[in-house]
Amino acid sequence: MSAATPPRAASEGVAASGAAGRSDGVDRGRRQILAWGAALAGVTLAPGVMLYDLAHGRPPSEPASPKVRWGMLVDLNQCASDCDACVVACDTEHGLPRTKTATSAQWIRKVELKDARGGARSVPVMCQHCADPPCVDVCPTGASFKRADGIVLVDRHTCIGCRYCMMACPYGARTFVHEPVTGQRPEVPRGKGCVESCTLCVHRVDHDRIPACVEACAASGHKALVFGNLNDPESEIARRVASYATSAVRADLRLDPGVRYAGL
């Protein structure tokens, strides 16, 4: 007579078998999700535009380099108070509404600042692309991130619209998309329920072009905006920063912004 399997051992064996089956099922489910994610990352949204390109600026084969620090110099001595060419160009480039409401997205805005002596300056303000961005520190999902080349971005695939980054930004540079988005440009995806801000026209920069606001400012004849690599001593922006005094908005916070101002 063969020995009978003890009831407890039998039940443990069934439980172990069931747990293994569930574990295999979970693993298969996870693998499937990862496979779907990889497949979606390769989806072409427009000719030459891939999902991962839009989320992180460059394809994985061409990572941003920490040897570069993209920045912008705003020369307020050349910025005309009645000129909004940079604002118009930004709105057009990114498909932002030109007719503004209290909740409309605006990635660059003109602010009138007055000093103690009564003098006034018209100051373009956008995301300052800080070396130590507080918006990145408070983001619970990692949607706010800084590329190796200093450009601060928002990954709309992982943004949950909590708006912590908006509260953390001392420059009021981020906006929440309240309205349904229409007329999108494929290289500049937007989405209702996400936070967004100036990207330094990363889709242009990654193709060796300058930001739209800089291009428009030059075309207007003012040439108040200079864009380039702050780490390259031979670049125009680096030479200007080295030649005369520049300052940062809220320099007391020591965030090391990539946007510098002359004449502030």
Descriptive account of the structure:
With 264 residues, the protein is an alpha+beta fold. The protein folds into 2 domains: 7-41; 57-262, Alpha-Beta Plaits (2-Layer Sandwich), CATH 3.30.70.20. The protein is 31% helix and 17% strand. The protein is built from 8 helices and 11 strands. The strands form 5 sheets. A 3-stranded mixed β-sheet has the order 10-3-11. Strand 1 (44-46) and strand 2 form a beta hairpin. Helix 3 (85-94) packs across helix 7 (212-219). The relative contact order is 0.17. Mean pLDDT is 81; it is low at 1-23 and 29-58.
Mean pLDDT: 81
Shape: globular
Task: Summarize the biggest pleated sheet.
Answer: 3 strands, mixed
Strand content: 15-25%
Tell me the span between the first and last alpha carbons: 97 Å
The CATH class label of the largest domain is Alpha Beta
- CATH architectural grouping of the largest domain: 2-Layer Sandwich
Q: Calculate Rg over CA atoms.
A: 25 Å
Number of domains: 2
The strand line-up of the biggest sheet is 10-3-11
H-E order: HEEHEHEEHEEHEEHHEHE
Number of helices: 8
What is this structure's SSE topology?
Elements: H1 7-41, E1 44-46, E2 49-50, H2 51-56, E3 70-75, H3 85-94, E4 108-114, E5 120-126, H4 134-138, E6 144-146, E7 152-154, H5 164-168, E8 175-176, E9 195-196, H6 202-205, H7 212-219, E10 225-229, H8 236-243, E11 259-262
Parallel strand pairs: 3-11
Antiparallel strand pairs: 1-2, 3-10, 4-5, 6-7, 8-9
Helix pairs in contact: 3-7
Quick overview:
By secondary structure, the protein is α+β, with helices and mostly antiparallel strands.
